[in-house]
Amino acid sequence: MPAKASKKKKTGAVKRKASSKAVKHVYAFGKKTDGNSKMKTLLGGKGANLAEMAAIGLPVPPGFTITTEVCTHFSQTKGKYPAGLDAQVKAAVKQVEKEQGKLFGSKTDPLLFSVRSGARESMPGMMDTILNLGLNDKTVVALAKKSGNERFAWDCYRRFIQMYGDVVMGVQPRNDTEHEPFDVVMDKLKKELKIENDADLSAKNLQELVKRYKALIKQRTKKSFPQDAYDQLWGAVSAVFGSWNNERAVIYRQKYNIPSEWGTAVNVQAMVFGNMGDDCATGVAFTRDPANGEKVFYGEYLINAQGEDVVAGVRTPKPIAQLADEMPHAHKELEVVRKKLEKHFRDMQDFEFTVESNTLYMLQTRNGKRTGLAAVRIAVEMNKERLMTEKVALSKIPAESIDSLLVPIFDPKAEAASKAIAAGLPAGPGAASGHIVFSASTAEREVKAGRKVILCRVETSPEDLKGMLASEGILTSRGGVSSHAALVARQLGKVCICGASTVKIDYEKKTLIAGKTLLKEGDFISINGTSGEIFAGAIDTTDSEVKRVLEGNLKPSKSYTYRLFSTVMGWADKYRKMKVRTNADTPEMAVSAIAFGAEGIGLCRTEHMFFEGDRIDYMRQMILAGDEKERRSALKKLLPFQRKDFSGLFKAMKGLPVTIRLLDPPLHEFLPHDDTTRHQLATKLGVSRETINERMKALHEENPMLGHRGCRLGVSYPEITEMQARAIFEAAASVMKLKKPIKVSPEIMIPLVGFQAELKDQVEIVHRVAKEVMAAKKVKIAYTVGTMIEIPRAAITADEIAEVAEFFSFGTNDLTQTTLGLSRDDMGGFFDDYRNKEIFNQNPFASLDQDGVGKLVEMAAEKGRSVKKNLKLGICGEHGGDPASIKFFNSVGLNYVSCSPPRVPVARLAAAQAAL
Amino acid sequence: MPAKASKKKKTGAVKRKASSKAVKHVYAFGKKTDGNSKMKTLLGGKGANLAEMAAIGLPVPPGFTITTEVCTHFSQTKGKYPAGLDAQVKAAVKQVEKEQGKLFGSKTDPLLFSVRSGARESMPGMMDTILNLGLNDKTVVALAKKSGNERFAWDCYRRFIQMYGDVVMGVQPRNDTEHEPFDVVMDKLKKELKIENDADLSAKNLQELVKRYKALIKQRTKKSFPQDAYDQLWGAVSAVFGSWNNERAVIYRQKYNIPSEWGTAVNVQAMVFGNMGDDCATGVAFTRDPANGEKVFYGEYLINAQGEDVVAGVRTPKPIAQLADEMPHAHKELEVVRKKLEKHFRDMQDFEFTVESNTLYMLQTRNGKRTGLAAVRIAVEMNKERLMTEKVALSKIPAESIDSLLVPIFDPKAEAASKAIAAGLPAGPGAASGHIVFSASTAEREVKAGRKVILCRVETSPEDLKGMLASEGILTSRGGVSSHAALVARQLGKVCICGASTVKIDYEKKTLIAGKTLLKEGDFISINGTSGEIFAGAIDTTDSEVKRVLEGNLKPSKSYTYRLFSTVMGWADKYRKMKVRTNADTPEMAVSAIAFGAEGIGLCRTEHMFFEGDRIDYMRQMILAGDEKERRSALKKLLPFQRKDFSGLFKAMKGLPVTIRLLDPPLHEFLPHDDTTRHQLATKLGVSRETINERMKALHEENPMLGHRGCRLGVSYPEITEMQARAIFEAAASVMKLKKPIKVSPEIMIPLVGFQAELKDQVEIVHRVAKEVMAAKKVKIAYTVGTMIEIPRAAITADEIAEVAEFFSFGTNDLTQTTLGLSRDDMGGFFDDYRNKEIFNQNPFASLDQDGVGKLVEMAAEKGRSVKKNLKLGICGEHGGDPASIKFFNSVGLNYVSCSPPRVPVARLAAAQAAL
Fold first, then answer.
1. What InterPro entries does the record point to (chains A, B) (predicted)?
2. pLDDT in tens, A659-702
């Protein structure tokens, strides 16, 4: 979790600003092109790629980009612009006027602009866009004349007023229940005119609408709609820059760790019109299927529409294939563009186009967002097609993606037995069941209350982001694969079906009707985001294909996803330097982890073994013992259980290293918390209730996290360490003496060490017991004894500790708690505040705080190896499964990471990416 | 609390060992002298000073020292000796034989030895000693013949067998109730012979006693008493080396932070006899009074006795002045020796001597242990006498000593109203009241149960150490100022009266009788260790003379201790580099601290202000508020109280800097814990009990130490920070506008910062409020805003934090808790284990863990100053009053330490010593 300050340093965004006044703030594209695709930091993704497309000869309407630096200036000065910007913008407008042969604000042949945001990383739908800018009461007339299409001109104007009124002048619903005010005005007019479709509104009707829109703005804002083209332009530019800090953009940045310092660029581009008639169209396309990665031309378009109509999902667009029939020429051109784009950008592209009077214009291209599954498939296949090298392909797969090949799917039998009530576009693969909710806020509330929900909407909008994040899956009845719902689902890895047009959702009645089935809010629904099928009720899930192959329940040849998985894992294993182990406490977990590619156990928590059956009684007897003798007697009873646990693990691991952590939690964690169990315990142990209560009271701790636990237990009660060591070595001996002997490599790990002397104390016990057991069993066991590095003092004195330890394993969970002085259990009270104020860019328990905790890890690694050059270093905190953290651990030179069994493939991939 | 490993590095004890076999293990002293007083590390204090005395011509019986390195070898190899030692010892014995003209083990003129321990630092009574070694059934006859005193020879032999049987062969009481077995045998014989005094036993009787002693040894050990002189020597040497690790020595080392690696040397010295007749004597003397520091020849002796008799307190010795009458020649010689010693060693000396047939022999000298009061007086007076420079004198006063001039004394009126029931030797100054206990174990038990006790013993022995440590004061009825009780009291700074011979203590009846007063175990008793008077019942205590002078209640000229104090403080202020501030929350505390020399407030904890009167209700209202509005309303009520608190502090501090820490503890600490108060609160606040209970439940934390506290509160509830900042600035403004304006320098301190961003968040609020208040009040307040460094991340990212902070104050309490992962509240469960196993050499909350926490302090200081060269650095944890920690803080370059008011003088002195 790099803190704000450090990210800043990495961006270099601030550096340029210090230089002279002659800073270039505006970059042209078109016939004259200043930028290129490498300038994303300065021009944003959209601006840089518009420049690149213009440069390689694709048909891009001319325009210019105002840099991200201006955004930063704008944010820091609370709305001011750097000196000289105005002149540079004017010059750029002039250049466009020259290229287009039109004049901005002209009453005869007006040049119109679109104004769009464009950050360094795409943030679809997060910021504002304004189209048709430059129209006013005069220019609209000119446009009508020039285009010969009066209705078109007035439609453009009313759209412009609506967007500008909303985005720049803030005419928006005033609460959750109020409808979009411009829509209300339009609906009212349509009702008066008894017109149903917008398309049936005549030019006259639209003139009336414009009048009413302007009145609405005046009423709401006490200001007139601006008529001056440059006033409009600056209003729009300011609104876009301002939208960088709107709530949904901030939330989005938090989710994707985009620093607020990056800022957005603003792209001002000559308008082309997809809505000038039936020889016009607008669309969005992907060079491959972004949902499953298949190599098909994928996209959708609307005839006679503006770009925003496609994304907004107001009209359900047509699949791109139909364009071949409707506009064969444009379709052919698009196919050429598709190939050219992939060949040039060497990645799947997501692009926007407009056809104006049968002429194709490219409005944007970018690397397409894709689901995890698609990421894997595209990388593997593009490598096969020699569009990507192995290394590039590997780097193109977000490590988390591999998870989507492993997530549960609906149990095939259960799914087969269920009848789909409807189907939609499969926009986010996977299986999800949950209670139906119809609003994002309900979704959030229900999830906080512990329920799983499926968010069902006619369509989604950026305001729904939080609710979508909370839901198991998303279902929409309207909108295509490039609708907001699909876009977000793709990025969040959410199960999603969109455009299920036979589903009728009624927000007021809170019902969802599909054919004869009526479902209410709260009812269960299940969606298969891979097939697009929707089921009433809950359906059981089962293992993914990959998992079934790994566990021998499906032939590899039967599963294409398995082949994708194994190709990627093959690459990963070829390039990674770090080993990947797993955190497993039982033979079952161990077996599953080995199937996922684990190369050993990095953390076996022995305390989990004490809860089952009789053991907990003996454990409690041990804890409540009055003296060492009683304690030893209870430990004697625990010994055979522990021995059995360990021999089970050793058998399952077949000679792979097994790191066993000795008892760690404070003893009171094992005691019953309710009176009944406590009284039963008293009876079982043959002591009075008072004795039990008193001893429990004595064991109470104010801050158990910092209390009598870890090696402190072993220091106070050496007999516990003895028993555990004995169980380990006796188990090892027994497994080595089986008919088919199994090699055993136990690595015994002493937890919570802060002082060399306490480690020494424990290590001596382990060695003594090892000697005893090896002598008694006449066997030589290869074992090592090491320590957790999980409190700051251990890291600070790692050189001293390394004199005694044979390995270090970083316990980054506790190390984070102590280094940040932050209890994971108690963070709930202020975590949201810290996220909102951007003090935490991430949850430090999910992704390592590299500037703080990371420094200690680095220090400990260096100090440890200064004493023992080849000291084995690993990490067994939950960060072991987090790609960003893995990258860091690789840079520090750890030998392995250890994570939960299902995270092993992610870790393997992340380790490889880190090594590249 | 330097860990074991690091102390090792400092000693250099191990280095030499690696070299060749020709290591010198044995150092002679006498006519041939190999060592000198600078070789204490190798020869121990006693051995080095015996060599030094021999070298400057004082009459030292010849002998040799076996080095501490041999002890270390002996401990590490569990009882083995380095190669070549045997030959070196033999050669050394030969040299002594030559000088004395006697032969070791000779049947005609046997040379006898004493064998004594001697560590680098004196550990009186902690280890074993054996006298008269070399006697056996043959040599005893030769000794009798040669000395012409058969009784003397047999008395030496029986003493030797007793010591050797006890120390080397382990014939000791088998439990607490059993008497010393050799005493039992002797008592039986005396009964049989109807003899009362040992002195009345004839040579024949003693021969019988020797027979019975040998039989006792045979019976107990199944071994015969060894007859070979060299066997005896090696047995004794091994026993002394072995005694380095006996329980009482280990406890002593823990108390005085003596690393176990130091080891002890063994001194083997030709016997001289103080018990050969009435022209013989033995004694212990100090060149000045060790109890109060007065320049008088001070000591005691016994005619016709061996040295151990004096220290053991078996016979009450006579004051040294009487020797002038009894042995005028020896006394004259001693006066010469006394002056020579002080002039040569330039410090008060504690020495042992023996007069054998009117000839004086010096057996030992060392810097005398002294009480705190004596330390101060001796340093001041020796400086006046030009025996010490100012700097040396300063360095000779343990900083803690100054405390003994400040500890409470009995209230003079109450003491005058009480009648002393007895008096003894004032051996440890000060006043103590407590319940009478008669055994060390009872003392320990009672103190654990929370009672204050006075340990009353006939005499004390090393076994009583733990009990003495636990007691408020110690009273003995037997033994002089060099008795065990007096020695230990001197070192522990315990109030002590010894040799109160009119007091009759009966262990069996558990009574103490003084004249007509009978006191029982559990009764109150009061002892004045300065005057030696004993009182029945408890007496109130009052301020020390120094404190009364400082507070204007006593004229400086009336108090010699005040003049001592002010001389030492004058020196301290001249040499120290660090400022000394105080931790004070109220004007009263501030005034008291200023009297003690505090130069500002380093920590004002604002939370303490919220508990009084109505405030706690408003505080609770604030905490339980449902929203910001309710919270602000409660804060508004708290504002005037806080403002008043701060203006009080500002007035008291008269322009000295005041560091105010904003609210720190988790809010639930302010809530009531019992149901009744909770219900009253519900009524007061007009909410339901359920609401209260629910909100309290929501505030519960698993690990409050790591929870929602410190600046995290201000981040979540900026209105709290606002209110506190407003109170500070409004108070400052009001004080600056008084008729007699007072300068104000508030330093506002944000607690628990770990991230630059959170500090920034809080600093911005403070600056905003400051601006508002200054504008409203039309005044300019000079203030700074800084931060606590109290969690590891703050230290690690101190460079980032320093960009925002104007000062750092190390909160070493919390920094210790987080760096060590160690809750101070929960350490009780294992602290003893950690002390016993020497994992902790000290309580890390009392003395800074320099190798762990200290490294972070150093890192933060460096990183902070790398960004702001003159960043003000202070420390306000409890370590600010600990001399060892202060030394460290000085070395790191802190600007000030802050400690509790009564610790200010100690801190001033320690800061000066650190600077020297």
1. ATP_grasp_subdomain_1, PEP-util_enz_mobile_dom, PEP_util_AS, PEP_util_C, PEP_util_CS, Phosphohistidine_dom_sf, PPDK_AMP/ATP-bd, Pyruvate_phosphate_dikinase
2. 999 999 999 888 887 888 888 888 888 888 888 888 888 888 99
pLDDT on residue A6: 41
Q: Is B814 annotated as a binding residue?
A: yes
To the nearest 5 percent, what fractions of chain A are helix, strand and coil?
50, 15, 35
Q: Token digits for B810?
A: 């190390």
Which residue of B lies nearest to A796 if distances are taken between CA atoms?
B852
DSSP A344-358: HH-S-EEEEEEEETT
Q: Out of B826, B829, B851, whose CB is closest to A797? A: B851
CB contact under 8 A, A701 and B826: yes
Q: Quick check: B793 and A5 CB within 8 A?
A: no
The partner residue sitting opposite A821, judged by closest CB among B754, B826, B855, is: B754
CATH of the domain at A255: 3.30.1490.20
**Within a domain: residue A732?**
yes
- Rounded to an integer, the average pLDDT of B50-71 is 96
B752: nearest CB among A701, A707, A821: A821
Tell if the CB–CB gap between B3 and A797 is shorter than 8 Å: yes
Same domain, A182 and A291: no
Residue-by-residue DSSP string for B496-535: EEE--TTEEEETTTTEEEETTEEEETT-EEEEETTTTEEE
B511 shares its domain with B641? no
Catalytic status, residue A711: no
pLDDT computed for residue A313 by the predictor: 57
- The answer, yes or no, to whether ipTM is higher than 0.85 is no
pLDDT score for B142: 95
| CA nearest to A858 within chain B | B796
Distance CA A743, CA A759 (A): 27
Statement to judge: residues A417 and A507 lie in one domain = yes
What CATH code is carried by the domain that includes residue B410?
3.50.30.10
Whether the per-residue pLDDT at B546 is higher than 70: the answer is: yes
- Which of B793, B836, B851 to probe by mutation at the A interface, max A CB count within 10 Å? B793
pLDDT digits (tens, 9 = 90+) for A550-605: 988 999 999 999 999 999 999 999 999 999 999 998 898 899 899 999 999 999 99
Backbone φ, ψ for residue A184 (5° rounding): -60, -45
Q: Kindly state whether residues A225 and A295 are assigned to the same domain.
A: no
Across the range A1-9, mean pLDDT stands at 41
Q: Is residue A689 part of a domain?
A: no
By the 8 A CB rule, do A407 and A430 touch?
yes
Left (φ > 0), alpha (ψ -120 to 50) or beta: where does B774 sit?
A: alpha
Domain residue limits at A847: 576-666+701-915
Task: Determine if residue A812 is labeled as part of a ligand binding site.
Answer: yes
Report how many domains make up chain A. 4
Same domain, B583 and B623: yes
B352 is known to lie in a ligand binding site: no
Residue B164 is assigned to a structural domain of this protein: yes
Domain identity same for B415 and B457 = yes
* pTM of structure: 0.81
List of E strands, A340-478 = 349-356, 359-367, 409-410, 422-423, 425-428, 431-437, 453-457, 473-476
Same domain assignment for residues B173 and B306: no
Within-domain flag for B386: no
**Is B851 in Cβ contact with A823 (below 8 Å)?**
no
Last residue of a domain, one of A226, A244, A270: A270
Cβ of A790 within 8 Å of Cβ of B833? The answer is: no
**Residue pairs spanning A and B at CB distance below 8 A:** 199
Q: Do B757 and A851 touch (CB under 8 A)?
A: no
Neighbours of B498 (CB within 10 A): 32
Q: What is the CATH number of the domain that holds B717?
A: 3.20.20.60
CA distance B843 to chain A (A): 14
Q: B490 among the known binding-site residues?
A: no
User: Does the annotation place B811 within a ligand binding site?
Assistant: yes
Does the pLDDT value for residue A445 go beyond 60? yes
Residue of A331, A435, A484, A879 with catalytic role: A484
The domain that contains B315 carries what CATH number? 3.30.470.20
Contact A706 B823 (CB under 8 A): yes
The predicted pLDDT at position B3 comes to 42
